[in-house]
Sequence to fold (1102 residues):
Amino acid sequence: MRDRQSDIEMQREAERLEEATDEAANLAGKLGLDQFPVNYWVVDYDDMNELIAYGGFQTRYPHWRWGMQYDRQQKQGQFLGGKAFEIVNNDNPAHAFLQVSNSLADQKAVITHVEAHSDFFANNQWFGLFAENPDATAMLARHADTIREYMQDPEIERAAVEKWIDHILCLEDNIDQHQPYEPVDAHQEVSEFDPEDIDDQLADLSVSEEVRQQVFDDEWLESQADDDEVASFPAEPEPDILAFLRKHGRQYDDEAGKAVEMEEWQREILEVLRAEAYYFAPQKMTKVMNEGWASYWESLMMADENFASADEFLTYADHMSQVLGSPGLNPYKLGLELWQYVENTTNRRHVVEHLLRVDGITWRNFHDTVDFDLVQEVLEPADLVAAPTEQELSTVDPEDPRVDADALAAAQAGELDLETYPWKLLSYEGLAERHYSLTKAQSRGFLSRVGQEELERVSRYMFERDRYDSVEEALAAVDYTVGWDRMREVRESHNDVTFIDEFLSQEFVDEHDYFTYEYMHASDDYRATSTDAADVKKKMMLQFTNFGKPTIAVADGNYDNRNELLLEHQYNGVALDIGQAQDTLERVFELWGRPVNLRTVVKRYDEHDVEVARRRDSEPTPEEKGLEIRYDGMDFSEEELDLEAVEHLAATDVDYDTKPEEWLA
Amino acid sequence: MGLRDDLERYREVGENRRQDLAEFIQYGDMGGSQQGSVRIPIKIVDLPEFEYDQRDMGGVGQGDGDTPQPGEPVGEPEDGDEDGDPGEEGGEHEYYEMDPEEFAEELDEELGLDLDPKGKQVIEEKEGDFTDITRTGPTSTLDFERLFKQGLKRKLAMDFDREYVREALKIDGWGPETVFEWARTDENLPVSRPWVEEAYAEIPDGERTAWESLEEMEESTDRVDTAQRIRREGVDQIPFRREDERFRYPEVVEEREKNVVVVNIRDVSGSMRQKKRELVERTFTPLDWYLQGKYDNAEFVYIAHDAEAWEVEREDFFGIRSGGGTRISSAYDLAAAVLEEEYPWSEWNRYVFAAGDSENSSNDTEDQVIPMMEEIPANLHAYVETQPSGNAINATHAEEVERHFRNSGNVAVAYVSGPEDVTTAIYDILSTEEEAD
Fold:
């Protein structure tokens, strides 16, 4: 437990950081960000680990998974190589946690990163699907209370509650994340026909046996069931499996040997966890964008705005290299690179448009006529914005749109510390010019790398036809803010899938060395297969669409006319992990109460083909077959289906396989 | 607190998902465990979900300035965490970890054992509970409770309802003498004659004949018993006497340390191939853990032998193979020497376990080994024959030992021809000592 000594330490740290948090919020605002206000909390290392384990919130429902996450973190050494860096949650106000033992540089890095995250949460429309103001902390705490109360209820077996939660969590990604969250309205249920139900109800009526047989005879019962129209539902495949189970699921009662209505607590917990799944879905869908966004602004504020002092900066550079240096597909890195690309391509297009309007310059002769060195020179940020502290304040024009007039006045009155915060003198426009991407060292060649295709396209779609007499004149009209403006638009409207889809290009892939790889039967290992942007994009789509998971939807809630559940895998060429699918089906059964079925497509490799292919050092071609797996609560059974039966499942014509044709046997 | 509970829950899940001990001992991966910690692999820890077949997915990688060309191999893909924590290692083995104590407890439960470790060496005289009593001592050790109880007894013994007796003195025709007789004989009240006379003298004249008869008095007067009186009057009235004082001091408790030394002997000659070695490991390791878990202090001696014996470290014990023939007595010679030297019987519990494939040089068993097994005092001697193919012709050591020690309580012989026999062997060995108790 914490002692007074560490409490004092944390208090001191909190005070030390007050200025940093205030100024970070100010700077973010000036840079055009519009974040939820952030409350910062100083915590120790253990608290940090705990918060991470609990998804960034202090109060969650009791469950072993939090323990598992905490345990794993402890065992795998420390998060991000030594210090847990950032936690901020999606809420208004947002809450962020800083570790007491971090250096000032690290703290500032976290703070600037967090402010940017908060802006993302506040503006990205996908978060808006859940709620404009999520009030998440309170909601999750309420859920925790609800579940805890059920666990402590003497009438309810605690183990049953925990198991129930387990079952639901297996399906937490099986929601319709593109729709706004709506609680399931239990009263809207479509009444199903269950002959057993009717039987029971009749028994309850205490009507005499004679009357029963006369009035409710077998013929009548059958006629009720015979209505083919009523039989199958939903009308369209339903991807929100949790909602469907909530509305129509049953419990299998072992003793009674049949399906019975769910208990109140079961229904409520199902809905509670479904709500949480919807709450967290946007975060999962925008991981790359969000982390990239935060890294972008953090880097700008820290490095370019000298948010860290010279000696602090070294620790900071270390931090960044750790974050960005991890191998594999790193969302921070991918995100950051893409945002920089968005900024650069937007700015470049804008400049190109202006240059194409110069007399004598066309898209054909562009590379021959444009003096790129000159262009770079002209585009360089003016002294005013590049070095505000070196300006003679009396010479600064308050009418200059790049100047913050109020700040100028305050500075002249000696009330503003410009040495530490030079950016305070500037407005958004001023800062945009100051940080103009095309003139940054790492982007020097970007403008000149514009391809012929793009030149031709820009030329084709240009509206403005006014001519400029000279390059200087054209460039004088360049708006330095277009890059950032566009970035802000994108961070509002896109998610990872649309982000990558729109902006990933061959130029990007080449510049950043991305490649695809596949598993090879021939060598029983993984090999690189392509550096083609289309292939890279496909693979990324696979990884980011639908949380990187196959799309499973409810096809029929009255399958075989026996109230069995039929799920279908919307097959896109990549097969399911069948073992896990079976384990998951067991859980689905627990939530449906009656047998459950799953239709999918499997790839069968003929052993002989594999042999032959191996010998030829090539890849075997599998045969695709339809498969239906059924689980009845006790046993599994499988049935192979003709391809016709599953053709409708293979909806897309995107082939996610990137193995070159010539490799196939 | 939330985290503590959730960690506990996680542990329970691990406990439910882990292999039960018998399975673990016979077939499990012992690679994660060590001397002092038993790590049992957990089959699956996390919840299942609908996921892609990993191999069918393939993936995207990023070169470090150099992109692998199509056809070039790339490393095993990292397990992508849903939360996308970059660079995090995925798919590590999950273990349920237990210390030897817990292991011993569980094994007891699973196999139905209950070994009671014996204390041997007295390591200290400890002060036990303050239960001994003397009549003198420092004030701080005064047994106040006892004093109070004694006082209370006295009070009860001498106490009587004075008011009641006073009323009796008001009975018409009753004088002090009568009341005294009545109080003492009929009511058993510990009154004294002087007190009665004094009390009588105190009664105002007019009241001396207030009651006409005893019956009338009794009817109209409430008796108050001692308990009520004490309650009313309080503790001050309890008489404390010097002779009631008692003082406590601590008993002397002899703390015996429960020591154990386990001597593991293994035939490492040419005939002991991989399968046999593994069976030895599967048998000995749990025995070691079990004993370590049961005793306060455990030490281990590892002796490898072929025709000669030498001491080894644990890491090497199960893997060693030499080329030569076999003479089991060499190991017992060495064991006897080591035990004599460092682990005297008066201070140490001893377990001497030997394992091999029952091969031995001629007559060595009867002439050397068996006599030594008789001579070396130990809680338990055991021989484990690991013979996957059943009996070999010259392999009779186990049989001979068994025949000779059939009625002795401290020698166990077990036969292990495959993993499925391991737990039975462990049970047989450990329960032999129990039976002897």
Notes: The two ends of chain A are 64 Å apart (CA to CA). Chain A is about 50% helix and 10% strand. Residues 4-30 of chain A form the longest helix (27 residues). Chain A touches chain B through 83 residues (CB under 8 Å).
